[in-house]
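Marked as duplicate of an earlier ticket. Keeping the data here for the record.
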Amino acid sequence: MPVNRNTIVRLRTIDRCLQRGRQCTLQELNDACYDALNQLGYAEELSLRTTQRDIQLLRSSELGYNAPIVVRDRKYYMYDDPGFSIRNMPLSDRDLQELSSALDIFRHYQGFRALEQQEDLIARLQESINLERNQEQIVWLDTNDRLRGLEHLSTLYDLIQARTPIVISYQSFRQRTPSDIEMSPYVLKEFNNRWFVIGHPTTGKKVLTLALDRISSVRPDTAHPYVPNTFFKAPQYIGQMVGVTREVDSEPRHVVLWVDAETLPYMITKPLHGSQKLGEKGPDGSGKLHLDVIINLELERLLLGFADHLEVLSPRDLRHRVSHHILKAATRYQQFSKAPFHKNR
């Protein structure tokens, strides 16, 4: 039986009513549950039968409560043990397992100041759970503990929320020294284990995307006003592409891929993009995939990862670029034996 938030509220209310030897009629318990839900904004009718089912749920072992609820004089519900409360019960093995998995996921999202403040609490909870269950970590997420730039994540989040213009000290891979970039930040985006901030620069392009691992400092910009985002709608702007790079005025293009029989089932279960649709299938199990997506460097690299399992049929310019990269790589491998650097490794 699935247990939702309303059920939990009702169970805790009944428990509170019956603590310390108190006695309540079914109607009194029903009224208390209705009032508790109403205070939380859930103004719904609550039948006596629902309250009876809640009492049975508390009595049963389904949630591990086994509450000693008895009926006195065929009218009053009470705990046979006056000291009983579901709040005093230890966590079950199932509770510990679910909490441990949640903490593993929770710890993955490092960089936000609120989580940094709770790191000690999270570590102690995780250690206590593992000691009690005598179990090693099960949930492993793809992350990079040495990733730079996460220390700016909370600052940027706060400044975006406050609609504050910023000055970023930024050093691209092509620069020898950092330079200041003034911008109005709008969005934080994670892709391929890297974080990016997207916003409107004071000069230059309409929209600029900067990698957090190339940022050395962030501070409020007191010399320029904040420019509200009238350049793009974030769900469409981000949802139309793979990755983070595009021109703000660019439009998605129709991409058609042929995929071999070995890889097609994988791509069906893990689409390359949210717009992906399966087209015609061949008698050998291969098929065509259709996407409406921004063509950018990230898409090209994604396709190159399946280079020997797919073929770009259209558009022609994307097909040309992908084939150029494949031929360039093939040429480099053909010349492998002729390169002294490789020979001596």
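See parent ticket for discussion. The first helix runs from residue 5 to 18.
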